Amino acid sequence: xxxxxxxxxxxxxxxxxxxxxxxxxxxxxxxxxxxxxxxxxxxxxxxxxxxxxxxxxxxxxxxxxxxxxxxxxxxxxxxxxxxxxxxxxxxxxxxxxxxxxxxxxxxxxxxxxxxxxxxxxxxxxxxxxxxxxxxxxxxxxxxxxxxxxxxxxxxxxxxxxxxxxxxxxxxxxxxxxxxxxxxxxxxxxxxxxxxxxxxxxxxxxxxxxxxxxxxxxxxxxxxxxxxxxxxxxxxxxxxxxxxxxxxxxxxxxxxxxxxxxxxxxxxxxxxxxxxx
Amino acid sequence: xxxxxxxxxxxxxxxxxxxxxxxxxxxxxxxxxxxxxxxxxxxxxxxxxxxxxxxxxxxxxxxxxxxxxxxxxxxxxxxxxxxxxxxxxxxxxxxxxxxxxxxxxxxxxxxxxxxxxxxxxxxxxxxxxxxxxxxxxxxxxxxxxxxxxxxxxxxxxxxxxxxxxxxxxxxxxxxxxxxxxxxxxxxxxxxxxxxxxxxxxxxxxxxxxxxxxxxxxxxxxxxxxxxxxxxxxxxxxxxxxxxxxxxxxxxxxxxxxxxxxxxxxxxxxxxxxxxxxxxxxxxxxxxxxxxxxxxxxxxxxxxxxx
Amino acid sequence: xxxxxxxxxxxxxxxxxxxxxxxxxxxxxxxxxxxxxxxxxxxxxxxxxxxxxxxxxxxxxxxxxxxxxxxxxxxxxxxxxxxxxxxxxxxxxxxxxxxxxxxxxxxxxxxxxxxxxxxxxxxxxxxxxxxxxxxxxxxxxxxxxxxxxxxxxxxxxxxxxxxxxxxxxxxxxxxxxxxxxxxxxxxxxxxxxxxxxxxxxxxxxxxxxxxxxxxxxxxxxxxxxxxxxxxxxxxxxxxxxxxxxxxxxxxxxxxxxxxxxxxxxxxxxxxxxxxxxxxxxxxxxxxxxxxxxxxxxxxxxxxxxxxxxxxxxxxxxxxx
Lengths: 276, 306, 320
Fold this sequence. Notes:
The complex is a heterotrimer of chains A (276), B (306) and C (320). With 306 residues, chain B is mostly helical. Chain B is built from 14 helices and no strands. In chain B, helix 5 (87-122) crosses helix 11. The model of chain C has no long low-confidence stretch (mean pLDDT 88). At the A-B interface, helix 3, helix 4, helix 7, helix 8 and helix 9 of A face helix 1, helix 6, helix 7, helix 8 and helix 11 of B.
């Protein structure tokens, strides 16, 4: 049931929780996210008896939770955006190659796809974290590793059927080079699929990044990533629930709005694409 | 059928082989294990002797073959953190707890998602459908570790109905199992719904109604028997994600399974144990997928004969 | 009359608004008679068939008015449960595409036995014997072996015979056949039509045969009803419809049937397109394409007039 109207609520939510804070964190955050206010440790949020100075309360070092969440949006956006672009590019390129060349190339790529599906991503991240230490690039590597295979498989499938179509045969008869056929005739036809998949995967990647930083194997401390903020509050479930609650809510709302947008985009651009 | 099964088996073996290469490669990238095994004031002779002893002076491919041979026998060496135990032994100790928790999570996922997906498709466009789809959307957007913390906050701290964490019976398993299952329920519900919608629209479902079959028979025996193939193919992925989910959720709830073990091993840089856990999880995942392929062929006569 | 339909209307609520794919349709079916229901796609002939089974697509479509009397019973007043016991037993249906009409994961035998069991429960062995007999009756060779086959292992013609066996398993009084031969190739088509005729001769079955193919109508039907844009435009005995069609639309349809005596096989096609159901013209729906249409035709919907014994047409200017 494709609605042609722009999904206003998810868009607003996305801007409010993710994009706005990511761009304007320095301007709108009431406090320095790293600054401790030791006299104001474990302040509850304003609606649970706290003051207006720390709207969403403070953590065990007296740092402003709202400011930390606003700054955390930055890392969520930066990591997932770069990861999606790299992963989609690598996966789509290999998928194009496999579907177009077929034969051995295809067999090898598809086997690699199977292998990467068989390796649990969090475990791989753990291993990488041990080998290289927790870092921005290790997180990116894991994200690319998780993403490329699904892009490769989907794109390959479409290319396999596209290459049998008339316009490709015609281009070939007309003497077009393989590179030209791929870039001018096949790529534009899979572009929608790639766009929709990228949007649908964006939510998954934000969740993955949050999970990694929650486990302490993502972007290292003291960077206030959302996963880390949730982890910070774990010991305070009884006494200061707000430390974990609000960062987690930010993750939930961001991913929710992205998933809603992804569904809408799929209905419009590529309704056949199945999402899991 | 047999050819198809053999092909899938060979493909899985190739994947498994590649995974051993990756695991072996990772263990080498961490640097020589000798530093952690000898005191700081060890002599060069001692280092050389241990190197020879461990086969570290051999060429890399030779070392890999030795590793592969040992891995095939389930020998990943001795654990560094849990002194006196083999890495394999440590993993095997913890595995039952993970299988119990994962099994419960899987059960919950299927028991909730299949009826929800079917009802949502049969009552398409009604409030029941909207409700199910809303829940599915939430389930796919919620971080498992945070859900775990919120569940502890509500049901253990707030209401006091269930224990906050630790190992024990069913009461200890409910919250972690739900945390693991949430995402899977959502994914499986959406999948079942779309598969059912497609099938409910077919001519053979119409023919079943023409025969005068009851609505229950039409929905379950005719439509679902066909639609079930789609969630079934997803089962392999499902089993894998449940394992992955257990790593995070076991950590949140302090559940002493293989997932928490992996985190502990990483913190202690206990590479033999890490290798063993990764190999175990990968093997479980591949097995689940082979099983699904065989089941798939068994359920769908068109594949079986194709 | 075994089946009597009066003033039946079906409404569909869609994105483009409310449409009436079946609009004020009346007809009746005598025992042992075959009535051809002819029209282009979108004329409402399949919807009429589904409405008779009360299997319209839910929840978009519903019957808004009319009466369906089947063997003396008003089936529109029936509960869902009562309707289920009527389906398959009193009125049954064969769908267009044998490729997709059978459940791909069920064995042929199980599908036939289910149909038998629904209306006449009995021990499995007895049902099995009856299923084999049924398949043999429908001209399926080696029926015992076919019982264990899956649909994809049978040819299109055989599959349609299985669908026929299922539809006729409880000896219904009325069979609705919705383009049952369209997906079959010509020789198989002829065999299947002959089979239907033989079965009718044997059982006195009444058939509503939905088709767009006048060739099939000529071979099988006793009477013909022509639909256009949801309405019945002409009804009459098959000979009259071919020799002296009263409605200009019927005339155009009959003229477009390929004949051996038409030079070079050129078909005089009807100019223009059937109207969209959500923007029907205010007068006669065929008027925009009709060579005889005058001002009145465009303004006011025509009444149904009797043009000859047993023949009637909804037209201001019927060809007498």
